[in-house]
Amino acid sequence: MANNILVLRAGEVIRGLVISRLAGIASPAAWASIAIERVFDAMTLVALLVLALAAGALPNGAAFAGMSAAQLAGVVATAGVAAFGVGAAVLIWPAGIARIMQTA
């Protein structure tokens, strides 16, 4: 893969071009598939972070930004659920969300 050779994830650019040419799909669809893949990657990392923080494998008294690990896990989990809710709303009501975005 080009990501192993090129710096700063430049291989993603090549990947989008290769997908669109070899699969015969439109370039925006290729970029959208890569973007969705990155969103799922981020959701997986957030879920793993929440699990690690909730497991309590950190030393007693460990704090991040003045919050305990349990509090941070709660904040991250809440943000993840909110992001999932926004994503679900966009998928379920695309026309309504587009209307809201145009008026904002």
Explain what you see.
- By secondary structure, this protein is mainly α.
- It has one domain.
- It is 73% helix and 4% strand.
- The chain contains 4 helices and 2 strands; from the N terminus they run ααββαα.
- It has helices at residues 11-23, 27-55, 69-92, 94-103; strands at 63-64, 67-68.
- A two-stranded antiparallel ribbon has the order 1-2.
- Strand 1 (63-64) and strand 2 (67-68) form a beta hairpin.
- The longest helix is centred in the middle third of the chain and has 29 residues, at 27-55.
- The mean pLDDT is 82.
Q: How many structural domains does the protein architecture include?
A: 1
Structural class, from secondary structure content? mainly alpha
Q: Radius of gyration, Cα only, in angstroms?
A: 19 Å
Distance between the termini: 41 Å
Q: For the residues shown, what is the average pLDDT?
A: 82
- Put simply, the count of helices is 4
Main sheet, how many strands, which sense, barrel? 2 strands, antiparallel
Q: How much strand content do the residues show?
A: under 5%
Low-confidence stretches: none
Oligomerization? single chain
